[in-house]
Specification:
The protein is of the alpha/beta class and 288 residues long. Helices cover 49% and strands 17% of the residues.
């Protein structure tokens, strides 16, 4: 099965009041865990890479491995570039076979965010690739990108409507109180703001920083229009824990053992998050 565009599945998920789970991978084992978990539950899945992962794995390796995973597991897999600020990198990703792109110009003034997003949308339209953008700023740290609390800003519903109309973007990441990385306390999501955005914006909405958000809060976000849920930190933590446990044995030095256990731990988390998003079985559901 070829890598797929995630947009039809996101539209189908929103129609059903569920969401597509999107996982940031970091190596072969995390990719295998995501693909295996999705295949077990017959769920379409979005494999995401950050700029840091491209530096670590290499663009050609990422694209090739994801194509192999899609063929091997027979489940719809989209390959998405996450939080990219550089136009040239997005061009390289598109040429390598990515099926979804996120341009993150949320750190720029509104007009500049619009201008860069429109440029990427025009490129995506020409290639038939959907584009995600962000309005407002999700706080926290992901890879080498940090947004402190003072710089974080919630998405304004009226601005979101204008932004979606002017840019023609396919999906919109909204800031409603989540953060990247590990939370210091329980996150408080602004559900009223999310509902107001959903009333004004017709395209699918994306929840970033979902790792560590209580399950019921995620479900409420889905009920209010979120169609894609991003998960990164919450697959890093079980992977690290499994490796530490395996290496507690001083005689253990086989990476196939400790990375294999890490892969299993990540797969368990992937399956739990897919069930939370409600998208199990959606791989076999007719698309709109």
């Amino acid at each position: 099965m070829a890598l797929i565009s995630p947009l039809p599945y996101m539209l189908k998920a929103r129609e059903k009041g569920v969401a597509i789970a999107a996982f940031n991978i970091h190596n072969l084992e995390t990719l295998q865990a995501v693909a295996e978990g999705a295949a077990r539950l017959r769920a379409p899945v979005i494999v995401q890479t950050s700029p840091g992962t491209l530096t670590h794995m290499g663009l050609a390796y990422v694209a090739a491995c994801c194509r192999v995973a899609s063929d091997q597991y027979g489940v719809p897999i989209a390959l998405h570039m996450d939080h990219c600020r550089d136009f040239d990198t997005l061009v390289r990703c598109l040429r390598a076979g990515y099926t979804s792109l996120m341009v993150d110009a949320s750190h720029l003034p509104f007009a500049e965010n619009v201008a860069l997003t429109r440029r990427v949308v025009e490129m995506g339209r020409a290639a038939g690739i959907p584009v995600e953008a962000e309005l407002g700023r999700v706080g926290g740290t992901e890879d080498d990108l940090t947004v402190d609390e003072r710089s974080a800003a919630l998405t304004d519903p009226g601005q979101a409507e204008e932004f979606a109309r002017i840019t023609g973007v396919d999906t919109l990441a909204v800031a409603i109180g989540t953060a990247h990385g590990v939370y210091r306390g329980e996150p408080q999501l602004d559900f009223a703001r999310l509902s107001a955005i959903r009333e004004r914006v017709s395209i699918p909405l994306v929840l970033h920083g979902a790792s560590g958000v209580p399950d019921e809060a995620v479900r409420e976000a889905l009920r209010r229009g979120i169609a894609k849920v991003n998960i990164a930190t919450e697959i890093k933590l079980p992977m690290a824990a499994a490796i530490r446990e395996a290496l507690a044995d001083p005689g253990q030095s086989d990476p196939r053992v400790y990375l294999g256990r890490a892969r299993d731990a990540v797969r368990d988390t992937v399956e739990r998050k897919i069930r939370l998003c409600g998208c199990e079985g959606l791989a076999d559901s007719p698309l709109p």
